[in-house]
Structure formats: C-alpha cells, structure tokens
Amino acid sequence: MQVIVFTLGNEKYALDTKLVHGIEKVMSITRVPTAPYYIKGLVNLRGNIISILDLKAYLNIEYVKEEENIIIVEIDDERIGLLVDNVHEVVDIQNDMIERISESSGYIKGVINFKDYIVTLLEGEMLLNS
Amino acid sequence: MDMSQYFDIFLEESHENLQNLNEGILLLEKNPQDKETINSIFRVAHTLKGMAGSMGFSDIAELTHRMENILDKFRNDELEVTTDVITLLFKCLDTLEIMIDNIQNDKNEHVDLQEIISLIECIESEKTKEGPGIKKDIFELELNEYDKNIIKQAQDKNYNVLKADITLYSDCILKSARAFLVYKALEDIGEIIKTIPTIEELEQEKFNNSFSIIFITQKSSDDVKKIIEGISEIESVNIQEISKRKNDEAAAEVAVAVRENDKVQESRREEEKSFKKVHQSVRVDLERLDKFMNLVGELVIHRTRLEQISSSHKLVDLHETLEQVGRITSDLQDLVMKIRMLPIERVFNRFPRMVRDLSQELNKDIELVIKGEDTELDRTVIDEIGEPLVHLIRNSADHGIEPSDERLKKGKPSKGTIRLIAYQEGNKAVIRVEDDGRGLDVEKIKSKAQSLGIDTEGMSDSDIKNLIFMNGFSTRDKVTDISGRGVGMDVVKTKISSLGGTIDVISEIGKGTSFVIRLPLTLSIIQALLVKVGGETFAISLGFIDRVININTNEIKKTNNREVIIYRGNVIPLVRVARRLNLVEDDNDEKFVVIVNVGERTVGLLVDSLFGQQEVVIKSMGKILQNLKEYVGATILGDGFVTLILDVAALV
User: Which residues are modified to Phosphohistidine (chain B) (predicted)?
Assistant: First the structure.
C-alpha cells in the first residue's frame, strides 16, 4: 500500500493515500464559534467549503510549531481537510512492515517500521466517526 | 433491454398515478353515481397496471388488475359504491404505495397480497348485484391511441386492416395451441395489432371458443380466410374489414363493447391536445438542476468579486460591462429559482385523503378546505414541509375539532372545518392551518408550564400559547394514536426553522386555532447583511431584518434580568450575538442593533459593526458541522473568504 507521511508535533504519522485527495498549503481559515474544539474552521477550496480538522487537537498531541499543510481527504463522500505540521513524502510500504499494536485507540491502525524511524499509521475512516 | 433508464420514470409516474387514484376515489366517494369519475380512475389504474406489467412488477400489475375489476363492476352497476368498498380501494392504494416504495428503496421485501386479494374477492362475490344481463363472454375490445394510429398509417399506405373473428370447435382440446397456430399464420402474412382476449390469456386458455385478432396485411380478406380455414378444428372464420373512410367510427365500433368509454377517450384526446398547446414541459433530473443552481451560485460569487475589483480600480469601461453582467446574472438567478419552484399542491394533495381517514378513525365529521394550492415554493421546501403539515393537521383533527354532539351544544355546525391556506406575502410564502375547534386553553397551558417548572409570570397570552412548541409539551392528558405524545409541536418548529421559516399560533378559546407558517421562497441565494462580531464576520439574512439602529452600550436597560433596548417607545429584548457565540465583544461602546422579526416576535441583535449588504449563496457546512444550530450554512464572499450565515430563528 501507499501512504503519505507527515509530522504532528515531534512524531511522524501516516495515512493511506487512497483517502487523500490533495495537499494544500495552509490558507486563511474562518473560525466557527461554538464548533467542537478540534474543528479549526472552514476554508474555501476552489469554490467548495471544507471543514478543517485540527489533527493535533483531535489526537491530543502537544503543540510544537505552526501547521504548514492541509491534507484533503475524502471519507464517506465528504471532503475534509486535516491540518498537519508538514507533509514529508509518499512511500510504498509492504503490509508486513505494519506492526499491529495492542493498545489501539481506534484511530491507530498500527506502526510502520522504517528501520531508522517509526511512523504511526492512522485509520482514516475512523476519524469522522466520532 | 436495459430497463434502468425507465426505472426512475416508472417510479415517478407511479407516484403520480397513485396520487391521482387517491384523488379520484375520494371524488367517487362523494359522487358515487358519476360514471365519468369511475372512467377516469379506471384509466389511471389501467396505466399503472400497464407500466408495472411492462417493467416486470407482476405483483403490482396483479393488484391493480383486481382493482380494475372492482371499478369495472362499479361501471356496470354490478356493485354499489359503499364506504367499505372505498376503504378497501384505499387499502389497495396503500399496499401499492408500499410496494412501489420498496422498489424505490431497493428493498426485496415481499408484500403479501393474499389478504387484500381475498378481501377483494370477498367483496366481488358477496356484493355482486344481479347485473342487467351482462355476459362476460362478449369480448371487450379497446383500441388505444397508439393502435389507432398504426391502423391509420397502415390504411394510408393502402394496407388492409382486418378483424378476424375465429370460433373453434367446442370439443377442441388444445385451444391455446390452435389459437397460437392462427396467430402464427396471421403473423406470417402481416402485422398483428391486437388480440382479444390478450395473447397471455390466449396462451393460458382463458377464453371460451372464440377469439378475435386485428391485424394489418396486404392480402385480401378472402385470402386470409382461406389461410385460417386451412388450420384444423376451426368451426368458423369471420373477417371484417376496418375500412378507411369510416376509420374513426369503425375503430370506435370495434372498441364498442366499452360503452361510453370511447366518447370519454375522444374528449380526453381533445383535452390532451388543448393542454399540450398551452403547456409544454420537460422532466429534468433534480441533480442537474442542483448543479445548475450551484453554477449560478458560483457566477454570483465571482460577479461580486469582479465588482469589488472594478470599484477598487475605478475602471469605467469594466464597470459598465459588469453592470450588464450583473443584470444577466440576476435574470439567470431568477430563472433558475423559478425552475426549482413547484406548486405546493404536491404536498397538499395528499391531505384530503388523510383527513378522510382521520375523520373516520376519530369518528368526527371533518371537512378540509384547501386554498392557494398553486402557490409556488422551492423544491427543497416542498420536499420537507409535508411532515410538519401532517402533524399540524392531525393535531387540529384530534385536539382542535370537537365531536359533533359537543359542537352542536356549543352552537357550531356539526361538521368541523380544517382550512389549509397558502399564499405569497412579499418574499415569503405563508401557509396557514386553521380549524374551528375548541382553541388553545391558556390556563391549561399555564398549569402545564408550571408543572414543567416554567415561570409564566409576566408572559403575554400569545407568549404562553407559543409554549406549545417546546419540547415535551402536550396538554392533552390522554395520549392517542393520532397525536398527543408531546413530540409533535417541537418537531414541527425545528423542521420549519431548519427551512429558514417561522411558525406562530393564534388561537381563541371556543373559536379555533390557526397555525401560521412563514417560509422563504428560495433557500439558496439570499440578500444578506454582513456584520462584525468579536472580530469575525457573519451574514444575516435580510428576510428577517426589520431595521438597523446604532446605539451606545449605556442605552441598554435591564428588566427582569434581561437586557432590552427602547426603540420608539417599544421595549425590544436584546441578544448579544458575541455572547451567544462565545466570542469577546470589542471594547467600542458605539454598537449596532439589528432588529429582526422572527414570526410574531421582535428581537434586537447586538453586533460590533456593519459591513454592508450583499447577495450570498448559502452552502452547506458539511457533515461534521451540520449539527450546529446557530448557523444556516456558510458562504464564500467576493474576496474568497468563507463567512458563516447566522440562523436568526435559533439565536433569539
């Protein structure tokens, strides 16, 4: 499978590229007062209004630096943007590189072992379900 | 053949036909003797049967066929139109509706027809009056428009159109095989238009000894006769020529058996002709219409953007052209809006049936009066408004209208009336549901409110009456099947505010109750006022706004622990938008109050500053945020920024 690797705080995370629709630079985001804390707001993506999910807030990850990228994903026919620190690369991985972890929190599919470093693989479909 | 492309049409037309049947049968109940009504119901049922049959839904065809049988008995005076039979027919319609819905929703559930069919059979056998000497053996032959057309064309090309009446030996064993041979022989020499009885019935041997075939051929009638006589076990062959000149009469004559029906068809044909002249229409997929709407929306956004650029660069040439573009986009907008509009009749037309059922169920005499069914509303509203109206009408029938004896005691006519009225008022559509029943009892609502812990001190009667829209509020002690579970009214209100509308209740005890629903005519493109609150920009639909005034914060008064302002001697409750949205107001003391009318209420919204008026296209905020009730949606402004549109009805 192919995954997109990005950073959140001090760690690396990955997402199946099947869900990914595009990568954008951070643009001006309209705040939505009264929205849940993990919703950063709305953006105008070429005429479409898209909700931006603050992935760090959502996954409880410590804030280190300003986000640079938005990954546009399509889940259940709905496009949303995931706010991430920055996107690194798109890589092909073998299924046996994914190590399942026991204390899974639902969003995490497993850990990819790249020998020099490890990446947490997120379960994209779970993100919108809560 | 790929049926899928006809599928949607089939579904849509079936729903229409069912609705027509419903209306027709209601009418029939009122005028049981009206043959014209029976005929028109018959025609609709026939169409439905034909369509279902050709789409392969044999269950539906079967049930409609049974209904036709009953209708046929009405027509021939073999069966009396009684409430029982009408109720049974309605039951058939309900079953048909379930079956069609199942098809639509791709459900494979099988609806069991056994029960209803046995009911029909029961009625057919029991109640059959001794008809005036009708022998079912005389075949009825109906040539439809299409057949007649073919005949005419054939005759124009000098083909012979013949009708062969064939009688088999009475001891013939394989009747259907013989019939098939005749059919085959005639098919070899020409084209068969129609067989009587139908080819299926011939195959299933559902005929006695004779049958007829109408066909087109180049051979003479004598030749044909010889060919048919060449087949064994045939007693007699009688060939009639359907002559050219007398085409219409002849066709009519052939169609005979069907009594007046032909006349009806003629008149219908004329009707259709004249109808077609005035009104030509195309069915369009709603999705395409939505796309069209979206594109026009985009156009509006970019026009606004261009206007901003042009005004900031002060280019005269561009400005002039833009004005033109502006006019065209407005026209385009109006047009697409009109295309999306449908008469509210589509919603209203199911209510006569519902009220009839309700009045039977509740054992009350209720009449439904409908006015203004041609009032047009956006398709989205039409789709959604039915459910709240059902609630309101049920409420009126159940709680409002009193039983006949009680009404007589009060000096009212024994028959209760529910009025359903629609009309346009400015850029709003108004729907009123009125009854002449007992009216709302303010005291009862008060005590109910107190038992729920609501302080009614200082509330006006009209405020108290509006409490019935609160969650869990039902003053009816007894819960009935029809309504009274206390879930109705708040659902109604929520639904209507989600459509950007308002609902109010006006009621006088003993005289009746009116529910007044106000809805925006269109939903997607609105004029909006842009305001700034706590550093953020929001849009407010102009439809709600009465006026805007500027005030200094020290003019805000407090009464009863609520903030108000006094404007021209009126006390207007104030809502601080910033606080409602958990934002921080800016420190400036000079602020603005947007005075809005929500239904019968007037409220002031406190905002920091104004930004001007603009046309905005309402877009959905997406699944994650759709539960936020403070906003009706979001929009993209000319400068490309996303702005939230406040839901005024939810804020006040």
Answer: 46
What does the pLDDT read at residue B448? 79
Neighbours of B202 (CB within 10 A): 21
Residues with Cβ within 8 Å of residue A41, at least 6 apart in sequence: A29, A30, A31, A32, A35, A51, A52, B642
Fold held by B145-278: Alpha-Beta Plaits (3.30.70)
- CATH topology (fold) of B286-343: Helix Hairpins (1.10.287)
Q: Is the dihedral of CA B256, B261, B264, B266 positive or negative?
A: negative
| Pure H helices in B198-315 | 199-203, 221-229, 247-254, 261-278, 286-313
A-B CB pairs within 8 A amount to 65
Q: Which of B296, B635, B644 is best to mutate for the A interface (most A CBs within 10 A)?
A: B644
- pLDDT digit string (tens) for B531-541? 999 889 999 98
* B12 carries an active-site annotation: no
CATH of domain B4-127: 1.20.120.160
Q: Is B279 a catalytic residue?
A: no
Among the partner-chain residues A34, A44, A79, the one whose CB lies closest to the CB of B630 is A34
This prediction has a pTM of 0.52
Say how many domains are in chain A: 1
Which residues belong to CATH 3.30.565.10 in chain B?
345-520
**CB distance A47–B636 less than 8 Å?**
yes
H/E segment holding residue B237: strand B234-241
Q: Give the CATH fold of the B345-520 domain.
A: Heat Shock Protein 90 (3.30.565)
Our answer to whether residue B209 is catalytic in this structure is no
> B525-651 is classed in which CATH architecture?
Beta Barrel (2.40)
List the catalytic residue out of B17, B22, B46, B402.
Answer: B46
